[in-house]
Amino acid sequence: MKETAIGWMNLAWDTTIDEARGFQDVEDLYDNIEQEHGADVAQTAIAKHWRAKQLTLNNAFSLLQQSLEIALKARIAEVSPFLLIAGDPRTWPKPKDGSNLIDFSSFRTIDAVQLCGAANAVSAAPLSKDFTEFYDRLRQSRNKIAHLNASAIIIACRLD
Predict the structure, then answer these.
(1) Helix ranges restricted to H, 80-150
(2) Which has the closest alpha carbon to 60: 104, 18, 123?
(3) Residue 158 lies in a domain
(4) Structural domain boundaries, residue 62
(5) Torsion sign across C-alpha atoms 10, 13, 19, 24
(6) How many domains does the chain have?
């Protein structure tokens, strides 16, 4: 799980960095537009550039949140993966094909909103208040992307 979390986190940051570099590569073009047509036209062109990149950036943002969610689940699973299972046992999946085994991935796990509390409850090293607040802001912003129109949402989430 940790490897997945790290891989997804790196992919999210790589995507974001690539988009920032791409903008730097054409930044002179916007300077030329400003010199030839004025600051308002240049600002409109820059805004259009970033609107075109919004879906990619929102996907990277969502992937960052998912990576932190997986990292928190890995932290909890270090104590016991069974701590991740959610719901009343009567609602758990039933064995199929006469087997007594149930694939762990068939179980519903605790929700993202519960992960920091669960990690703090079972971990020897609690999460910092700053991390918990950051994760919550990230999770709420990701929910807006995932459950609303992802390409139209411009995230205003401080990353500090």
Answers:
(1) 115-122, 129-147
(2) 18
(3) no
(4) 2-152
(5) negative
(6) 1
